[in-house]
Design a protein that fits this description.
about 120 residues; globular; metal ion binding; Globin-like_sf; Leghaemoglobin-like; metal-binding
Length: about 120
């Protein structure tokens, strides 16, 4: 298992602090990029099926993207600073069954991105 160096950890923290100022826009761009790479991923989101609202203007996608982005980044910071994730138990209890009922599998969280395939971990 590889671990972050102190320098890498500080880069992640400083990046997150910089991104927080525009998290809503960045999180939406993140999901739009996922749908660009894997268009079928849109079908995993019930609020997108049959919607005529353009993705970049969809209020439900904007809210979902922001929540996912914010939770993920805050979790990473907690893991680094505290050594554990302090998500509320109700959050986990709510998310897991909802994702399972939607048919989400581990493989759905991996999106291949050719320009990142050469990056070393």
């Amino acid at each position: 298992m590889s671990t972050f160096t102190e320098e890498q950890a500080q880069l992640v923290l400083s990046s997150w602090n910089a991104m927080k100022t525009d998290a809503a826009s960045i999180s939406l761009k993140f999901f739009l990029r996922i749908f660009e790479i894997a268009p079928s991923a849109k079908e995993m989101f019930s609020f997108l099926r049959g919607s005529d609202v353009p993705l970049e203007k969809n209020p439900k996608l904007k809210a979902h993207a922001f929540t996912v982005f914010n939770t993920t980044c805050e979790t990473a910071v907690q893991l680094y600073e505290v050594g554990a994730v302090k998500l509320r138990e109700t959050t986990i209890k709510r998310l897991a069954p909802k994702h399972a009922m939607a048919g989400v599998k581990d493989a759905h969280f991996e999106v291949s991105c050719p320009e990142y395939s050469q990056l070393a971990v």
